[in-house]
Design goal:
Strand content: 25-35%
Structural class: alpha/beta
Shape: globular
Order of helices and strands: EHEEEEEHHEHEHEEEH
Radius of gyration: 15 Å
Helix content: 25-40%
């Protein structure tokens, strides 16, 4: 039986932060499912860094179908979880079904990879208290308010939690997450 990994996301997620781990984990032989508030065609965005801007810019990105609604997810069926960034985590953290899913993964101490604004979701369930993390640098105060120690680096590994700043850090983020997966999953 092929081990399954769940990606939780929604509209306005960063295209690369969903599709890079989706394809990279499939390449490693995992079955990967994308869950969202409902089964629908999701609309992702592209965040880019342009000269003269104090923050990232946002442009329309790819569309991609959600395999499952959050209400259909059985966390026990999955060996690991990926939490992409973009703007989606800002509103998804209010979703009760998603918070139940996240809590189940953390309660079972399953591997979790989070990137960019994704840690807003783990902060919403209180799972960053006492941990070392990174995120998009503008969230440093949010990570500290959630009880985490923020580190501005490509990837931070704390137990089975692997966090990263943004899509330019993908190679380091996935390399560290794959080490955890190989150690903790079938």
């Amino acid at each position: 039986m092929t081990p399954k990994i769940l990606i939780v996301t929604g509209d306005a997620a960063e295209s690369l932060e969903v599709l890079y781990p989706y394809q990279r984990l499939q390449e490693e032989g995992y079955e990967v499912h994308i869950a969202a508030p409902t089964r629908k065609q999701l609309r992702f965005v592209v965040h880019d860094f342009e000269p003269g801007y104090d923050t990232y810019t946002e442009k329309p990105g790819y569309t991609w179908p959600a395999d499952l609604a959050f209400s259909e997810v059985a966390p026990a069926d999955y060996v690991a979880l990926v939490i992409p960034g973009g703007r989606a985590p800002e509103y998804l953290r209010n979703d009760l079904e998603l918070r139940k899913i996240l809590k189940a993964f953390f309660d079972a101490d399953k591997p979790v990879a989070q990137i960019c604004h994704g840690p807003l979701l783990t902060a919403a369930i209180g799972s960053l208290e006492g941990r070392r993390v990174t995120s998009y640098p503008a969230l440093e105060l949010d990570m500290q308010a959630a009880g985490a120690t923020f580190q501005d680096t490509e990837a931070v590994v704390d137990g089975v939690l692997v966090s990263s700043r943004a899509w330019p850090d993908h190679p380091t983020w996935m390399r560290e997450f794959l080490k955890i997966l190989r150690e903790h999953t079938p």
